[in-house]
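subagent[fold] <- orchestrator: predict structure for attached chain, return tokens only, no commentary.
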Amino acid sequence: MKLTNNYYPMKRTLLSFLLMGGLSTYVYAQENLTYQLPPQSIVDLVDAPGSPTVQFNKNGSLMLLLQAPGYASIEQVAQPVIGLAGIRINPANNSTEGELSGVYNGLTIKDLKTGKENKLTGLPDKMKMTNISWNADGSLFAFTNNSPNGVELWLADLKEFKATRLSNGYLNDAYGTTLQWHPDGKHILAQFILPERGIKPAENIVPTGPVVQENLGVVTPSRTYQNLLKNTYDQSLMEYYLTSQLQSVDLSGNVVKIGTPAIYRKAAYSPDGQYLLVQTIEKPYSYLVPIYYFPFQTTVLDASGKLVKQLYNAPLAEKLPTGFDAVAMGPRSYEWRSDAAATLVWTEAQDKGDPNLKSELRDVLYALKAPFNAAPVKLFSMALRYSDVVWGNQNYALVKEQWRKDRKEKMTLINPETGKVIKEIANRSSEDTYSDPGDFIYGKGPYAAKVLLFDKGTPGVVFTKGAGASSLGDRPFILKWNLLSNKQDTLFKSKSPYYEEPVFFNNTGKVYISRESTEETPNIFAIDLKSKSEQALTSFVDPYPSLKGVQKTLLSYPRKDGIKLSATLYLPKDYKKENGPLPVLIWAYPREFKSLAAAGQVKGSPYRFTRLAFRSPVFWVTRGYAVLDQADMPIVGEGKEEPNDTFLKQIEDNATALINYVVDMGVADRGRIAVGGHSYGAFMTANLLAHTKLFAAGIARSGAYNRTLTPFGFQGEARTYWQAMDVYNKMSPFNYADKIKTPLLMTHGIDDENSGTFPIQSERLYSAIKGHGGTVRLVLLPKEFHGYRSRESILHTFWEQDQWLEKYVKNKK
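subagent[fold] -> orchestrator:
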């Protein structure tokens, strides 16, 4: 039976609430409402098939065209999910449950030399491909198939174009490194579920005693987390679902056990394949923090699993200091030096991990070569917090440091053998997108591990690719950079009227780019850097033909203090100003900055093709609205002032500037403007309705509204409630619920897993507005997380939004 805009034929119930001033199709108080469909113009866009995702093998000779399925059905989403230690687990197949991204059900392989396209034979029925991993020479890739009963290990042979299931055992895809290639490219190390584990532990419904937590005078601040362990039964479930046996599988499917069963936090081969760096979760577990703060042991095994060196037992990290730059004391961030055979590196805090203490040094980087019997070598000392090392060769490595509090970012070129500083490469603000040199491009070193891609013949010449933020919008680039002389040559840069983004480069004279424009869907092209000739590699069709002709403009407009703001304006096709001003939907998300200059930098590009997702408001351009997407909401706090000290004033100034600008353009009706957002955007929306009279209605999805429920920090706020009580209270729209008289539509996933956005946040704000006679509707979506996943929930959410906007904005009386 065909679905209509009014009902689903299957009886599926959605719990929703309404108070006062309801739409004509709504009833008061509670109602058992089946999932509804929005207007067909929106349904068609939601159901449009997306363009394939592309992925290249390591030498760029082959390209995978990966097709993702559409939104899952509510039946799929409704399968049981268990939340343990901050992780969501699908107990049916021992996988994680996210927003269903990175899963593919279709695959085509294109030979980029011949242009021939091939399909793999032997693929599983109803394939759900994920965890794609290439071997060293790019002739094979491993992947997993998420079957209903378990996660299967598969191998794709790109010479024979054949897929084979390698083992009858199931993998543990819930935590840790599911699979990885041995550097020899002929073996795969994977986490397997223990075949002897049996059925899950049964819960004893009779308590054996109370659950006790205790703190003996130690400062132990902790942010709010979802899905934490609650009792000993949860602990047994965690061990049941997360315990794995590492096994090496060869190309014929022969399996060898490596080490012993454990909860593996990390497992990584040394670049020469002789050793394994292994981290395992240990007791005691915590009921206060997620698993990544649990105690863990770091060891080195040989390739057969025999213990070589026990490195460090990290304690439970419940007692970290406050602040984004806080870290645990002791060794952390163990990794292999990727350009050397078997050298371990790690860092250790010099300030007790406490960013609030004054210290000339924050971190020190250490190194230890195989066979790991000598004393560690102090490689590099840092004035900021360690971020990463980019390994090149025996002469060059780049150490990255950062300090989140004031947005400092440093990069230093060193000799990785001696630790000698060659020169400081960058010392900048992480917020300054205009000066961002981009991300380094990697190549293949002496082993299979990735290292810096160096230019041939000239020492210290590397390559980066970046977004190319500028006053004209983003113009992605590839940069050739001599780190020693600092000479920079731009090899490629996007040119208007296109947005051209490099997707593959290995310094062989060509670059593969994704090219798009406002009217042209993204497609892949090969560009010859010398001759500038180009070749189209794909011909994806426009998934949204109904949006053809929609007018899209990147706006730039001033805030009253001089900051330049931006937003993307969508106007209905064939709209002309003489037709009169339109009803407006503004969608935004606040972001914190430490400088006015950074806040005023142009974001985005005027040449991007419109992509639609459940967070997008662009659907409503088909309903006759002017839509303002990604409207700038910078919150700036320079010097000693923190951004949130003036949060309310700044979001009002941001909104006022945008409204005045589009009204003066003649496209917006000042009396018919709605504002909306998801998560922190929902928090912004509730505050704008509580403190201004700028809007006709608001839409708040999966937000947090009472900051006292997140007392140890939220979003970019590092101060605790007790350190900034006035800020927390003023920023909480819950405290001003009696002032919210503008109609507010709220939605929330009942199983929201996001830190801080517990569903009770929406329930309490709804009750508070209701208790003061406001116009408000709360829709709770069964089985949905922070990001909505099922087609039914997304379409129903859009139905709710459309009904709300039609009554309170477009047809406002």
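orchestrator: received. Logging for downstream: Residues 509 and 664 are 49 Å apart (CA to CA). Residues 1-13, 15-29 have pLDDT under 50 and may be disordered.
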